[in-house]
Specification:
Layout: E1 2-3, H1 5-10, H2 17-26, H3 33-41, H4 49-59, H5 63-66, E2 67-68
């Protein structure tokens, strides 16, 4: 996903993060300078759904304008890679005691 807050704000004539931060505060969303920097720069560490709701209300936009899907960045996991490798008879595991000595044969 790509975060698109800055462009969504610019489309509404908001050019400064501090202005948007003030608008959020007027709607009950207090954001620290560090978190606002992350939101504005396009690389937020995380975002709560309640905060996202306030952001959409302040900007008058939908989530689809703030979050742009990037399916081409999703990689398929190789199915063969996840399969466990069967142990051969010659590589049998011999149990050991905690002191390092082997257990007696059964």
């Amino acid at each position: 996903m790509r975060w698109n807050l800055r462009l969504a704000a610019a489309n509404r004539g908001i050019w400064k993060a501090s202005e948007l931060q003030r608008m959020f505060a007027e709607h009950g969303l207090k954001i620290s300078a560090g978190k606002m920097s992350g939101l504005w720069s396009g690389e937020p560490a995380s975002i709560k759904l309640d905060d996202l709701n306030v952001i959409c209300a302040v900007l008058g936009c939908g989530v689809d304008e703030l979050l742009i899907p990037q399916p081409e960045k999703v990689k398929r996991v190789n199915e063969q890679q996840d399969l466990p490798v069967a142990a051969s008879a010659s590589s049998a595991v011999t149990p050991r005691r905690k002191d390092g000595r082997t257990l007696p044969p059964t």
